[in-house]
Amino acid sequence: QVQLVESGGGLVQAGGSLKLSCTASGSSISDNAMGWFRQAPGKEREFVGAINWSGSSALYSESVKGRFAVSRDNAKMSVYLQMMNLKSEDTAVYYCAASRKSYLQSDYHSGIGYDWWGQGTQVTVSS
């Protein structure tokens, strides 16, 4: 069983940067594709980015492409979300998730493609 814990959230001004971390315990995630999602108040959860098991491939939503970057360090059992040029619309609770699969499948952007979830970390961008 994989347990995921996100950290690094907080309050940041628009245009600023923030780096989120997601650390796994209970089982290794070195063979798992990982994803980041977010949910703003009153809105549905949405896909942010995903990375395959080796870190050689990453995909992003159009809303964050060019501003956010997903990376991983399998030795540290961690996945990261570097967020730059933050906007007020990036305000949300951010969740990391692990898939049983190693490569990004056609459902990488959907929550149903992931099997374990963290509890989330709040990111608030002030304008």
Q: Short description, anyone?
A:
Helices cover 0% and strands 46% of the residues. It has no helices and eleven strands. Strand 5 and strand 6 (58-60) form a beta hairpin.
Structural class: mainly beta
Distance between the termini: 40 Å
Radius of gyration: 13 Å
Number of continuous helical runs: 0
Beta fraction of the residues? Answer: over 45%
Poorly predicted spans: none
Largest sheet: 7 strands, mixed
Average pLDDT reading: 96
Overall 3D shape: globular
Total E-strand runs: 11
Pattern of helices and strands: EEEEEEEEEEE
Query: Portion of residues in helices?
Result: under 10%
Account of the protein in words:
The protein has strands spanning 3-7, 10-13, 18-25, 34-39, 46-51, 58-60, 68-73, 78-83, 92-98, 116-117, 121-126. The protein is mainly β and 127 residues long. Strands 2, 4, 5, 6, 9, 10 and 11 form a seven-stranded mixed sheet that branches. The protein has a four-stranded antiparallel sheet with strand order 1-3-8-7, with no helix packed on it. Strand 7 (68-73) and strand 8 (78-83) form a beta hairpin. It starts with a strand and ends with a strand.
Overview features:
mainly beta, single chain, four-stranded antiparallel β-sheet, seven-stranded mixed β-sheet, 127 residues
